[in-house]
């Protein structure tokens, strides 16, 4: 009971951001990727992350989840500080509160889809094998894969199915926050659109906070509540309407180019972003 009381006391207030970065500096040798970067991610939002090549989009995700320790700055994920020297127990406990879908899927080729989904459960420990298998089947259904996908190996799946299997693994431990690195890369337009809608449906039904690195303008328009643009080693965050009006040259080129105009012509866009929010 005492441990439970301590856990409740340590929980962040509901109005606190899910993710908080202050003064983050990421550096590789002489190359500084981020310098003085501040970012708040609101609970329950879908935040898109964009930026030019070399701006450190994937590095940012890895930093937030503790795979990359910054040279300076403070990071909080769900009220807990991400820092070097965290104990193994504290790290494992926090890892159960977020899921990560890597750009290439990062599925274990020698394991079936069900076994891949069960891998985080095994690492966490304390879950009976029969229950793990039931939960894996539940996640498979949740992401729209057929039941027979459970016993297939990644090499037997299409690209779109591998993406869904990777997402199912990210959801294995019922996380509060999900990080997606280029989730629609390599998918055809229909497959990408279906995956966008899957992300949005899961976000709403599971009350997830989603941080998504993407180059897909259609995804930004369709499902992102706000967008974080990595520029000049820092980040600029806003709604689509706010960024469209931002005078920064890179933002202007990105959000006013031919591909952007095509994305903005998506039917019903005004219902999501407000009348006159886009050019």
In summary, what is this structure?
With 279 residues, the chain is an alpha/beta fold. The protein contains twelve helices and ten strands.
What features would you highlight for this structure?
279 residues; disordered C terminus; four-stranded antiparallel beta sheet; six-stranded mixed beta sheet; single chain; alpha/beta
Tell me what you see in this structure:
The chain is an alpha/beta fold and 279 residues long. It has helices at 2-10, 57-64, 88-95, 113-124, 129-142, 159-170, 189-206, 217-223, 240-244, 249-256, 258-264, 269-273; strands at 19-28, 31-41, 46-51, 72-77, 80-81, 98-101, 177-181, 209-213, 226-231, 234-238. The protein is 41% helix and 22% strand. A 6-stranded mixed β-sheet has the order 6-7-8-3-9-10, sandwiched between helices. InterPro entries: AAA+_ATPase, ABC_transporter-like_ATP-bd, ABC_transporter-like_CS, P-loop_NTPase. GO terms for molecular function: ATP binding; ATP hydrolysis activity. This is ABC transporter ATP-binding protein.
Average residue-wise pLDDT = 87
| Strand order in the sheet with the most strands | 6-7-8-3-9-10
Number of strands: 10
Question: Largest beta sheet, briefly?
Answer: 6 strands, mixed
Number of helices: 12
Strand content range: 15-25%
Class by alpha and beta content: alpha/beta
Overall 3D geometry?
globular
Low-confidence stretches are 1-10, 267-279
Cα-based radius of gyration, to the nearest Å: 19 Å
In which range does the helix fraction lie?
A: 40-55%
GO molecular function, one term: ATP binding
InterPro entries: AAA+_ATPase (IPR003593), ABC_transporter-like_ATP-bd (IPR003439), ABC_transporter-like_CS (IPR017871), P-loop_NTPase (IPR027417)
Pfam families: ABC_tran (PF00005)
Keywords: ATP-binding, Nucleotide-binding, Transport
